[in-house]
């Protein structure tokens, strides 16, 4: 056993722990889609019930504790909280700090990863496309502005009045997201951000970047990128946008700070 103590057949380069809302069916498949050889993804779920309210986000944040405890037993190298809105509707630093302590590994959250990605690309003004209701859209605008970005526009699909609508976010066709991103875009925006880890947006990033002539960031793409760079892995991953192809430098905790 001593001879193979460092070996992991599906994570010999890195094991990424991922905590997703229980309703999320997109984040994990998209992480695997981006994963280079030697990088594995190991997932735990945090219960998410009800409509899109502050109370539901708080309950999910509390559920990340047991999810982090589970990932600790998988001996992951880093843990990502794969919920964009869940990590700006509740105090991100508190959630990430608690997850990291419980898992015994560095931790980050999707919303913080987006901040780091925007900074890595030199973005100052961003157009935002979301599936959220207005309560969440307002807070996302505030969150991005707190980190120094100008939100040139924000378009939401208003999904989340019921739990059924929340689950339906994972069924929005990529082609619809392509059109939503184009509607959100503004000439003054340096980049377009498609928010939510349960949106199947990865497949339209390359087409959008080609057609808009600017970087396109998605929650899952930014979160996976941040995991790799936080671990010091500089793999250039093609087909999913400039962020993964050209932003190869390692990042540290300062990349996520106000």
UniProtKB/TrEMBL annotation:
<dbReference type="Pfam" id="PF17645">
    <property type="entry name" value="Amdase"/>
</dbReference>
<dbReference type="InterPro" id="IPR053714">
    <property type="entry name" value="Iso_Racemase_Enz_sf"/>
</dbReference>
<dbReference type="InterPro" id="IPR026286">
    <property type="entry name" value="MaiA/AMDase"/>
</dbReference>
<protein>
    <submittedName>
        <fullName>Arylmalonate decarboxylase</fullName>
    </submittedName>
</protein>
